[in-house]
Amino acid sequence: MLKYQVENPGGEAPMLDAFGIYQHHSRNPQENFSARVTRQNPEAKFAEQFALAYRDKFSKIHSGTSKRKTFFVREMPVFGNGIPDLLVLSWSRDREMNLSTCLDLEKLDPTVRAFEFKLSDWRKGLMQAHRYKFFSNVSILVLPNHKMKSAAPQIDIFRKLRVGLWGFSPETRAIACFYTPRPIKQQIPKYGERAIRLAAQSFRSQFSPLLKLSQAVQ
Fold it and tell me: Which residues, other chains included, contact 11 with Cβ-Cβ below 8 Å and sequence gap of 6+?
């Protein structure tokens, strides 16, 4: 369920205090992983479980970064470069995000992490994740922990391509980071900028009621 808190001191734009995980939809955006779970395939269910666990463990996994505020979007197409199963934008805590800035996420200088999930075919997942480097700062393939024995011996390939390799156990919510590349500039910066703008559009569609409230109090 989408959760947010509105603060409005002195008539300022409402502040977004908490973010959920959102399903991108071009016409009828819906809130996080709704009741459609029953119609999901196993890979989509795996992606959902990972996203929820990663959101809760983000600060611990990325303990060395100051960019701890996050926005998660599921299945957002990015201009011929594929559809990442999960796109995560993160920015510094000292850069407050309110409704007046949500339409221009680029001002927050976010780090963009793209995730691909596969239940078995790690080679196909690697190729898909590699494409996401065109618009993301970090691209990561996530496999079930019990499937890591087939991919882990090929870790040098992941290092050479600078694609991360993580394992995840839905039962324990454990995330094993076998290889995590450092964030770097997108291979094609304009694609990165477009991905951020698309995320902003998804953000706007989710919070359109609050946008109207913001306009009303200004």
Answer: 217, 218
